[in-house]
Amino acid sequence: MPNNTSGSHFFAHLARMKLINRWPLMRNVNTENVQEHSLQVAMVAHALGLIKNRYFDGQVDPYKVATIALFHDVSEVLTGDLPTPVKYSNPAIQQEYKKIEKLAEQKLIEMAPEDFRQDYAELIDAQHHSEDECFLVKAADVICAYLKTLEELAAGNQEFDLAKKRLDKIIQAYESDEVNYFMQMYMPSFSLSLDEITQEELQ
Fold this sequence. Notes:
The protein is mainly α. It has a single domain, classed as Hypothetical protein af1432, CATH 1.10.3210.10. The chain is 64% helix and 0% strand. It has eleven helices and no strands.
C-alpha cells in the first residue's frame, strides 16, 4: 500500500466538465458540453498523429497526443467557457484570459494527487508539449468546432454560418498536410445521413 493516503478533489473537478456547455450566447439545436467535445478532439488528434506519421514522415506519439487532447480544456471547470467573440475581441482581453487559463491549469495541477502531480502537469501544462503535439491538438480542436457548425447548419440553424466561414479560413491557413488529408478524406462523411454512411459501408 502507498504511504500517501490523502484524498484529492482533482477527479471530482474533472467530472464536472460535462456540466459546462460550449458555444454560450449562441442558439444550439444540440447542446455540446466540454467533456464530449474533449473526447471528439482526442479522437481527431489521434487520427492526425497517425496520418502525419504514416504519410508525411512525422514522429509523434498519437497516444500521447490523444491524451493531451482529453485534457486540453480542463481549465474550464474553473473558468467556464468564455465565448470566442469575447475572448478574441481585442489583444488585451485575449492576453488576460490566457493568464487566467494558466492560473486555472496550475490550480488543477496542484489539486492532483501528489504522487501523480507531475504526470498530470505533463498533460495539462503546454510547456511540456512539443510544437507538433500542440499543433495537432489545436488543429483537432478547430476541426471539431468546424464539425459542430456543420451539424448545426444541417439542422437549419443559421446562427453558425459565420462561425463555419471563420473556422474554414483558419483550417486553410494551417497549410498542414495531415489536416488537409483529414479534411479531404474524412470530412465529407460528416455531411451524410446515417442511412447514407451505412449503405456506403455495406457496398
